[in-house]
């Protein structure tokens, strides 16, 4: 399983793994793929500095990347506008009443933290500033093209830039802005997604951007057969995310690992929902009592990003601390139906590679 991206990044397999866990990212890189650390969870740049230093020291010299959340257009941030004051009281009341109805207790006195600030443009820029002091080979942006000055800065440091796209027209815009690698993220994916499934989206984007722009297939990829399918559609590699939530190395990230493992191991591929309740933009989440409450008659419409995240940040902290698998709020793709056991990262990578080889061998037999 080798494509030009393997030579470009110095990796053995064109398997790119998005994860909020530095332990998962390091394990993927050590296993021959490219671990990409999601930075949105870091409010404190000092914590991110410590984590990236740890990655530098625990990847055996192998490459890794980082993922930020930065809109191309700079919002009205850092002005006199108080974002929290823009949240309607009815929304605040709905969240509190829903938590009460679902039996989610308040956090103990003195516990809790500020909402995740990585969704804010200014914080994402600070994440990049920290990353540039380390050795990532890739900067990926979850919201499409980052601003042009960010792309130029990355290129000046010899870092490639990747951006997610849910439609061919978005991919073309990214290329025009200077993005190097397009991540064709299908409807099946966890987190922010578009409306086109990967079987249609990947070849659409490959054909649109042409042979000189590498494309990573994303959405619903959790086995070697699915990697083979993505490469058959013209991708040069795969961008994976949800499958790493079910690994041993992911344990310990937050307080809800036991509840999360119970939730995903019992879920089917039908147990997710695409909704704006998590961040304000359409994202695929595990279907739970929390997501169902937002779909009931009388529930308010989710607010735009970043207001929705500011609204639900404390609720997510409380849900996480409650350790209840029926309520948990977690982005995950439809591949969750295959995540029925917790495995080490190295085993997952090995299965992706061997499953790919088996699929190709079967096709060779059919071809005769």
Automatic annotation (TrEMBL):
GO terms for molecular function: nitronate monooxygenase activity. Keywords: Flavoprotein, FMN, Monooxygenase, Oxidoreductase. The keyword ATP-binding does not apply. SUPFAM superfamilies: Inosine monophosphate dehydrogenase (IMPDH). CDD domains: NPD_like. InterPro entries: Aldolase_TIM (IPR013785), NMO (IPR004136). It holds the Pfam family NMO. PANTHER family: 2-NITROPROPANE DIOXYGENASE, MONOOXYGENASE RV1533-RELATED. This is Nitronate monooxygenase. It comes from Nocardioides luti. The lineage of its organism: Bacteria, Bacillati, Actinomycetota, Actinomycetes, Propionibacteriales.
